[in-house]
Amino acid sequence: MTLMRPPATPTVEQDAALSNLLESLLAEVPPANADVPAPPAAQPRVAPPVVETPPVDAPAPTLNEPTEQPLTKETQAEPPADSEIPAWVGGGFRTLLFRIGEFRFGVPLVLMHSVCPYPDDVTRVPGQPHWHRGVFRYRDASTVVADLGGVIGVAAAADDPKYLLVLGEGRKAIAIDAIVDTLVLHADQVRWHKAAGREWLLGLLPDQMCGLLDANALSSGIRHR
Questions:
Q1: Which of 50, 94, 63 is nearest to 156 (CA)?
Q2: Number of separate domains in the chain
Q3: pTM as predicted
Q4: What's the CATH number where 129 sits?
C-alpha cells in the first residue's frame, strides 16, 4: 500500500479556503435524521456483506489491537450482525477521506458536525484515559479532543495533528494528521460490514483501501471518565 506524504504545514489562507470548502460540502448534505428521497433511477445495487478479510487486490489496513479498547466488546462465538444500508445513503453520499499516521479512513459528511484546524489551546485533563487529548473552547462550549485509535482500539494515533473532525453536537472531536480527499460514493462502492462489537465500522472502501467509519458511534464512545 502506497502511503501519501504528509502535506506541508497549512498557511492561514489554505486553512481558510479548506474551511470554506468543507463548510459548503457539509451544507449540501441533509441531517442524518432527515428523510432522503430515493432518486427516480433504479435503486443502487446492494453489495453482499463482508464477513472475512477483503480480497488481496483491495486489502484493508491491518489494525493492531491495544490493551484498552473502549468501543471493542468481547464477541467470541458471536456472529457478525446482518449488514444494512443506512437510509442516508440515498442515491449517493459525500465522504471525507483522512489520514492518521499510516492509516487512512473515510467518514460520511452527513454524519459529521464540522472540520476545523487543530487548535493551539487544547488543555489536558487529569485522570482521563490515554486517548483523551484534552479539551478546548469551540463555538462557546467545551469540546473533548480524542485520538481515534484509542477510542476504537486500533494502533492509529495522530503524531502531528493538523485538523479536528468535530462530531455529534460539536462537543466531541477526533485529531487527524491530514485531509486526503472528498468524494461521492454509492451504495455498491462500499462493502457494508456492520459487526457486533465494532459499531464504529460501517464497512470497507475497496477502491480507497480504507475503512468507512460511523461518526455517531465514535461520538458515543468519546466520553469523560
A1: 63
A2: 1
A3: 0.65
A4: 2.40.50.180
